[in-house]
Amino acid sequence: MTEKQTFHVNGYLALVVLIGLLVGGGYLFYHGFVNESVLEIVLSILLWIVSFLFLSSLTIVQPNQAKAILFFGQYLGTIKDNGLFVTTPLTQKINVSLKVRNFNSSLLKVNDSDGNPIEISAVVVFKVVDTAKALFDVDYYQDFIEIQSETAIRHIATQYPYDTFNDDDLTLRGNTSEVSEELAKELQERLAVAGVEVIETRLNHLAYATEIASAMLQRQQAKAILSARQIIVEGAVSMTQMALEQIEDGQDINFTDDRKVQLINNLLVSIITDKGTQPVINTGDVKEKGV
C-alpha cells in the first residue's frame, strides 16, 4: 500500500460555509413551518444533516504529524498539511508522527567474526515517510523497528572482528564509521517495507563480554607488544645495514666476517634493548710474552 492524499479543504473557510448552511436551514425551516411547506422543511432538515456531518469531520493536524483517513475500513489517503481541515464525513482519523525519533537498542551479546563474545548496542535515528506502509503493511511499526534494528545489529556484529592489528582489516572498534554506515544501509533495506527512513545509526556501546574481558585484554597487550617488537626489529635491521654500508663505503674499511657479525650484534643489541647499554672499548688482541 502506498501513501496518497485525500480530500480536505481549509477548515476556517468550510466552517463559515457550514455555519451559513445551518442558518439557511433554520430560515427554510421557519419559512416552511409558517407557510406549511413540507418541501422547505425537508430541505432544511437535509441542510442541517449535511452541515452536522461535515462539522463532525473537522480535524486538526499538528506540525510534523499526519492523519490517515479511513472510511469504513477503506484507506482514503493521508493529510500531511498543518492546520484545521474538513475532510470526508464518517471517517476514522489515525494520527501518525512524522518527527525524527531515536531508538536505543538494548545491550546485545553476540559473537564477532572471530567467535569472541562481545557486548554491543546502537542508536538508530529514523522517521516515518510513508504513513500507509507504516500503518497497514506492518503490525505496530514501532515494535517492527525495534526487532529489525536488533536483528541488523546482531548480523553486522558477526561480520567483523572486534579488533585486529592488521591495518587493512575492518574492525568493530577501529572502523566505527564504516560499520555504522553498513548498519544504516542494512536497516534501510529492512525497514523500507514499513515506510521508515533511517537517518543515522551509531554504535554507543562496544566491549568484550565480561567473562573473557580480562583474557582478551592480556591478548591485546601481547599482540601490541609483538607488533611493536616487529616494527623495532625491522627498523633496527635497516639501521644496522645502513650503518655498515656507510662505514665500508665512506672509510674504505673492509670487515672480516667475524668482525661484521660482532658489529651487527652490538648494533642490534644497542638499538633493540629498552635499557641503556654499557659501552665496551675494544683494545685489540693482547698476547702474553713468555718469561
Which tags fit this structure?
four-stranded antiparallel β-sheet; 10 strands; 291 residues; Band_7; Band_7/SPFH_dom_sf; SPFH domain-containing protein; rod-shaped; 49% helix
Explain this structure.
- This protein is rod-shaped.
- The longest helix is centred in the C-terminal third of the chain and has 42 residues, at 210-251.
- The protein has helices spanning 11-35, 38-56, 131-137, 141-157, 176-191, 210-251, 257-272; strands at 8-10, 58-61, 65-71, 74-79, 83-87, 92-97, 101-104, 108-111, 117-128, 196-208.
- The strands form 3 sheets. Strands 7, 8, 9 and 10 form a 4-stranded antiparallel beta sheet that branches. A 3-stranded antiparallel beta sheet has the order 1-5-2.
- α1 (11-35) packs antiparallel against α2.
- The chain is built from 7 helices and 10 strands.
- With 291 residues, it is of the alpha+beta class.
- The chain crosses the membrane at residues 12-29, 41-61.
- Keywords: Membrane, Transmembrane, Transmembrane helix.
- This is SPFH domain-containing protein.
